[in-house]
Amino acid sequence: MAVKAFLYLLFVAFITHVAALDWTGAKWIWDTPSNNGNQPPGTRDFRREYFTPSGKKVVSAEVLITADNAYSLFVNGNLIGSGNDWRTSQEYCVRLDPFCNVFAVRATNAGATPNPAGVLAAIQITYTDGFTETIVSDTNWRAHTDTVGFEQVSFDDSSWQRAVVQKNAGDAPYGNIPLPAAPPPLTLNGANWIWTNEVDSAGNAPIGNRAFRKTIAIPNGLRATSGTIIISADNGYTLYVNGKMIGSGGDWRVAQRWVFDLPSLDDVEIAVFATNTGGPAGIIAAVRLDTTDCNCSSTISFVTDGSWKANTGTPTGFEQPGFDDSTWPGATVEGPYGRAPWGPIPTQNGVAKFTEKIQGAPDAEMGKVVVP
């Protein structure tokens, strides 16, 4: 059976307080009845218009979706996400128009011969009064062969036929599709030791202070509200986020965990003042930012790698938001977490205890850091 996913929504005629979203009531849908459970290979488009009930205003939608074999999800003409394995599902949180919204899915049934196909979706819509309504993939969706512009709000789908139910959620051959797992705990796995390009063939770097920066543009109108950073440096560091000092460390053998609040931000700028007192030098970090958009919440995770900027000095103001690091070269990746001479250093339990900035680091106002 080819692997494919399809988005479908079922209208539920009741409004309730926010609850966990699952596949209850959802159907696997396609554009035509199946032939012994199979559909010809090809691409199909699906649309579901949603009009807000009188007296209410919509804030956001949580979308749970998968498809056999692949899908792209659009909301009000904007590409939200995609998937290519019906055995897993994806979850998206999207800001909506207060009154009129269009959920659109382009799904493809792969393979050279007919095989099962379908889109499965559940959408929980949240109103400004905190109540919710759930719609799912079902015959309230419209379906058609792939059509240019189908995802746009203004597209006229009145000539399209109703989608056809292929299976109920949980039925064979799909069974119970697992819900997306919660984000795994933040660790240094996947992070890299980085430094400037001064590291020699023996792995040693000159004595002195160096500056590192990473700017993250928060996507899709989201705002960063808090974050967690696990970090270590050989030999020491002071960490800044958007110009505020978060904390310092002076023993590379144990990484520190910093948890902090942020004002509502479009961009997050991380700066590290690091020092080497001789021999090998490096910093390593893993970052998770919590973001929100109205009632939507999600996380953005990244690690130290070659996309960070590095400077062989510590220019005045480098830790401040808006600092121009466009001429800085990318950091030099020395190797992944666990490599010699550092090995698989542990991360301390709980959050780090505040320590003063290391010698030479810029003065700055303290950030809103969670204390032990």
What does this 3D model show about the protein?
This protein is an all-beta fold. It folds into 2 domains: 27-168, Galactose-binding domain-like (Jelly Rolls, Sandwich), CATH 2.60.120.260; 192-369, Jelly Rolls. The chain is built from no helices and 26 strands. The strands form 6 sheets. Strands 1, 2, 5, 8, 10 and 11 form a 6-stranded antiparallel sheet that branches. Strand 18 (236-241) and strand 19 (244-249) form a beta hairpin. The model is unreliable at 1-18 (pLDDT under 50).
Task: Itemize the secondary structure elements and their pairings.
Blueprint: E1 4-6, E2 15-17, E3 27-30, E4 42-51, E5 58-68, E6 70-75, E7 78-83, E8 90-95, E9 100-109, E10 118-127, E11 131-136, E12 142-145, E13 161-162, E14 164-168, E15 192-195, E16 208-217, E17 223-234, E18 236-241, E19 244-249, E20 256-265, E21 267-276, E22 282-293, E23 296-303, E24 309-311, E25 332-336, E26 368-369
Antiparallel strand pairs: 1-5, 2-11, 3-14, 4-9, 4-12, 5-8, 5-10, 6-7, 6-9, 10-11, 12-13, 15-25, 16-21, 16-24, 17-20, 17-22, 18-19, 18-21, 20-26, 22-23
Keywords: Signal
Signal peptide: 1-20
Protein name: Carbohydrate-binding module family 67 protein
